[in-house]
């Protein structure tokens, strides 16, 4: 997996299209070459590539989280009375409301996000911000801190957002003082995260509101379902249709250069690269997500199968031999789960046997991970056999250099021969 991520980063290292967000002056001072990719499995295992420790401001990636907090605190009906769920097809900072309802079209554009802030019940702006900061931090599994410079810069240059705030007040969407609501909105956008925080936030959404690392339920499953739905239709603004067709994951971008993408039930992805396209999305971030989705088969409309229910049994028929029995459909994240289980238990065996005789379907990403597992084990002086009677993993044998058997018994016999020979060699 690590090789996979490093390879995808290497493929995009030269992408330098786009420009830094400069309408918030402080954002124009970041290193344009910063680049990081992190991935969290649904059980909280983290992979990182590039500048994964580098902090940047969360910006609009805050919007789905504040929306989730509003849903959690006051319920969907009260939120729906103020913010719609329709894609706007407009820029993120459009000064507009829905023509008929006179409400913001959705919570992912600034108008809807500012309205969502005003729905968090709190006696003062500081208390409201504290609730927001605590909520985001539980998703990331660590305390997220405010970037004072970016906050000051946003506050000093936020005329457009102020225009949106006053417009919302005039339509009766904002009950509170627009300046106080905006102050909290500027602060939420200025919280600092890393690509790994985004992957963890994504994985918490992927797990329906349970942070896989801390084990804490931080939001209701129904709240997360609604939040992910709006991310699918509105998360990438006027690029949403293209994104869903090409990448196929609920996602949210921010002008700080981050993107979070979620494969429900499977993965959270965080990417950082601050050069943006005209829609405010990270150019390289979007391309990396496209590649990840294509190469790992992550599009949510093709992975609606039992890709996690793959490792049915692990057993040791003889000392030094471990059999991993997979079943169902073996897609990328299911294969990652199998490979990681075998990797974790590498002290237990000299020969690993992967039994795919009950696997119905497999994709190229899973095939590649399994063959990489074979070469890694061989590189460590171990043996790796495959029980694949129908040839679903191995279509042509020289292709993957894996020894293939028709039954587990045959593979175990051969493993025993290998063990006897290699033990003798090590005794000699
Ligand atoms: O309201 C703004 O302009 C920023 N604080 C956030 C905008 C943003 O991140 C748009 N996303 N791509």
UniProtKB/TrEMBL annotation:
A Pfam family: STAS
Q: Where, by residue number, does substrate bind? A: 60, 110, 154, 161, 185, 237, 255
Q: Domain STAS, which positions?
A: 311-395
- Classification via PROSITE patterns: STAS (PS50801)
Q: Which residues form a coiled coil?
A: none
Q: Which reaction does it catalyse?
A: L-glutamine + H2O = L-glutamate + NH4(+)
> Which keywords does the record carry?
Acetylation, Hydrolase
Task: Give the EC number(s) under which this enzyme is classified.
Answer: 3.5.1.2
Q: Which NCBIfam families match?
A: Gln_ase
Subunit structure of this chain's protein: Homotetramer.
Family as reported in the entry's similarity comment:
Belongs to the glutaminase family.
- In Swiss-Prot or TrEMBL terms, this protein is called Glutaminase
């Amino acid at each position: 997996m690590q090789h996979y991520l490093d390879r995808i980063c290497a493929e995009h290292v030269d992408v330098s299209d786009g420009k830094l967000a400069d309408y918030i002056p402080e954002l124009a001072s970041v290193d344009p070459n910063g680049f990081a990719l992190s991935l969290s499995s649904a059980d909280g295992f983290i992979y990182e590539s590039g500048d994964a420790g580098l902090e940047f401001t969360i910006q609009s990636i805050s919007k789905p989280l504040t929306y989730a907090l509003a849903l959690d605190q006051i319920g969907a009906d009260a939120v729906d009375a103020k913010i719609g769920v329709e894609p706007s097809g407009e820029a993120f900072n459009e000064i507009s409301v829905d023509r008929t309802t006179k409400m913001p079209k959705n919570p992912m554009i600034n108008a809807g996000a500012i309205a969502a802030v005003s729905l968090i019940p709190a006696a003062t702006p500081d208390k409201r911000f504290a609730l927001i900061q605590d909520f985001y931090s539980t998703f990331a599994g660590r305390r997220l801190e405010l970037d004072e410079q970016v906050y000051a810069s946003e506050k000093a240059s936020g005329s457009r957002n102020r225009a949106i705030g006053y417009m919302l007040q005039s339509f009766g969407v904002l009950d509170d003082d627009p300046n106080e609501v905006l102050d909290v909105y500027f602060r939420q956008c200025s919280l600092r995260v890393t690509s790994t925080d985004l992957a963890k936030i994504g994985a918490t959404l992927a797990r329906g509101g349970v942070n896989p690392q801390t084990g804490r339920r931080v939001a209701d499953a129904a709240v997360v379902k609604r939040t992910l739905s709006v991310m699918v239709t509105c998360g990438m603004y006027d690029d949403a249709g293209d994104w869903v067709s090409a990448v196929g994951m609920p996602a949210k971008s921010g002008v700080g250069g981050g993107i979070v993408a979620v494969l429900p039930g499977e993965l959270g992805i965080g990417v950082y690269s601050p050069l943006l396209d005209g829609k405010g999305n990270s150019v390289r971030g979007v391309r990396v997500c496209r590649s990840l989705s294509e190469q790992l088969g992550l599009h949510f409309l093709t992975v609606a199968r039992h890709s996690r229910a793959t490792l049915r049994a692990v057993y040791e028929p003889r000392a030094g031999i471990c059999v991993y029995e997979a079943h169902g459909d073996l897609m990328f994240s299911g294969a990652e789960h199998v490979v990681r289980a075998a990797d974790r238990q590498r002290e237990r065996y000299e020969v690993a046997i992967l039994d795919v005789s009950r696997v119905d379907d497999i994709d190229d990403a899973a095939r590649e991970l399994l063959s990489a597992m074979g070469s890694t084990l061989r590189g460590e002086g171990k043996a790796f056999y495959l029980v694949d009677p129908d040839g679903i993993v191995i279509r042509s044998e020289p292709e993957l250099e894996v020894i293939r058997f028709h039954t587990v018994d045959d593979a175990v016999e051969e493993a025993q021969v290998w063990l006897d020979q290699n033990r003798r060699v090590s005794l000699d």
